[in-house]
User: Fold this.
Amino acid sequence: MSKPLPQPNVVTQRFWSSCKDGRFEFQHCKACGHNQFPPRLTCTACHGADLDWLPSSGRGTVYSFTVVHRAPLESFKADVPYVIAIVALEEGVRAMVNLRGVDPKAVAIGMPIEVFFEPTEGEYPLPQARPR
Amino acid sequence: MASKAVITGVADTAVGKVDGSTSLGLQAEAAAAAVADAGLSLGDIDGVLCGYSFTEPHLMLSSVVSEFLGIKPSYSIAVQAGGATACAQVMQAAALIEAGICRHVLAVCGDNRLTGMSRDKAVAALSEVGHAQFERPYGISVPSAYALVAQRYMHDYGVTLEHLAGVAVAHRKHAMRNPKAQMRQPITLEDVAKSKPISTPLRLLDCCLISDGGAAVVISAADAARDTRKRGIGVLGTGQMNTHEHIIASPSLTDFGCKQSSRQAFDRAGVTPADIDVAEIYDSFTITLLAELESIGFFARGEAGPAILGGALDLDGQLPCNTHGGLLSYAHSGAAGGMFHVVEAVRQLRGEAEGRQVASPELAFVHGDGGILSAHCSLVLGRN
Assistant:
């Protein structure tokens, strides 16, 4: 059994296509200025429909994290212990990633990170993060 | 304030490993027992609200349950709000009664999650609540999502691993007084600390059980309740708040909708947290209860942990809480997990809690949360 892979749909296709080009894009509301992620059809702040896609700098910090010792699916069992983090990007949006290239014991809230793109078994790479 | 909706019957089945049990069977057993507890017959039920099942899922579970029971309710619907389901069923039942639509509503839940599916399957099924595109590819599980909350909560409010362990020990202490509880052997803070890591900072004993079991309550119109067998317990106030579903979309990792849902329930009942004599609050993980106790206002931020280590949740403590043993030590079988909290609150208010009875409580608070602290429903119950 393989890992769950990104399955783009009409709302998220732009995001995943940008990942292929090495950009992490979020939505920006032209009416109220709100930045949001994950992608939606409308702005979650003012409910307007005029949304722009902007690239993130890819820089941020660890907002919270956990070291997983008990994998939920067979396909993740070989990876334990692995780190899941919620990262806060400079533009004010948060995303879930796996933190790579770091000793799980050394991860801390506030740690500076940068987003990178990790190949998957599918068509689209997955945004991940590592310390910067 | 006299309430229009009163709880007239409660019941739960055997819990834990119930060999040969089925989801429908557990629901039927709990339903019949709750109706009998009320002194009613199944034919008196004109409203059915059921939860959901992992082992016998169905598009129209409420119809399936009614068909199995052999009743023809004039109102029937299934409620799906994860751990908030049971409280939401009671809230919905009270609203139906206050609107004059029903006279006796049966709210029933049950699942054979322990014997009906493997532990791996139960964990995998629960992981499907993660966001398909933006969480599940990272290997998220329900414990990991709560672990993300725990890590941030500990960072912001000085909560320690020992505080979390204290929650687990307090629940086991309650369960040891309850002959029906699934887990009754004593545990220490050290046992929790040494239990195997699941998703840091959460360890095995920080996590709820997986159980078989069913539970049901009957909610009746006050004027229809005069003929029932026991004194009705009033549904004095109800409240809800829903802020997100997925943890990546949560507005905060430390402040949750239980604050608003409980305030709504307290305001509608005309009481404050300080008036509550006994509380039954969703405890899917140790951090769940700790964050809810502080968000609801029973304790100031950062103070629940030390208070719990000092016995605050015990029968004679500041806030006797989860007196049956909770999801951590009594049982957790899906939607029924939250219904056990409702059943226990009613038993406490009726004075039927035997060896774990709180001294003459007048007011109880019950709270359920579904998802990752996403959907919240609160109830204030009282001796009418």
Remarks:
- The longest helix of chain B spans residues 23-38.
- Chain B has one domain: 5-116+209-383.
- The mean pLDDT of chain B is 96.
